[in-house]
Amino acid sequence: MEFFYEYGLWGLFFASFFAATLLPFGSEGVLAIMIATGFDLYTCLWVATAGNWLGGMSCYFLGFIGKWEWIEKVLKIKPEKIKSIKVKLDKYGSLMGLFTWLPIIGDPLAVGLGLMRSNLALVSIFMFVGKFLRYIVLAYATDLAV
């Protein structure tokens, strides 16, 4: 976390970006430290959201160029599980972009939305809104604690 903090807002942007990819990383600590040490709350909120949203959209595009068979083969996911995920994505579609901020399932969800060729504009909007609301909660909780 210190590494990202040293680079200020750029560090926050990249920490948020990486946190929204398939890499196991969290950006909450970087955001909290930056707000606690005097960085502008609103600027941090927008920078973190933009980075996280772009990271999530990169997962969407990875899915968009991928195939279900690759996911099954590379990630060793059983066909039954793939079908279960596909049914849920079919049912709720682009709206599932709201939940791409969730730990563990958010990144695969974004990939799945890409695989399903869900509406790019709607996924983009819902993903941004979900990630923004998440960071609002985190930013204000940190601000109140300081």
Structure description:
The chain has 8 helices and no strands. The relative contact order is 0.16. The model has no long low-confidence stretch (mean pLDDT 88). By secondary structure, it is mostly helical. α4 runs antiparallel to α8. It is elongated.
Topology:
Blueprint (H helix, E strand, L loop, with lengths): L1 H5 L1 H12 L8 H9 L4 H25 L2 H8 L3 H14 L13 H10 L4 H26 L1
Helices and strands, in order, run as HHHHHHHH
Q: How many beta-strand segments?
A: 0
Principal-axis shape: elongated
Structural class: mainly alpha
**Parts with pLDDT < 50 across at least 5 consecutive residues:** none
Determine Rg (CA atoms, Å): 16 Å
**Quick check: average pLDDT?**
88
What's this entry about, in short?
The protein has 146 residues and is mainly α. Helix content is 75%, strand content 0%. It is built from 8 helices and no strands.
Descriptive terms for the model:
146 residues; mainly alpha; 75% helix
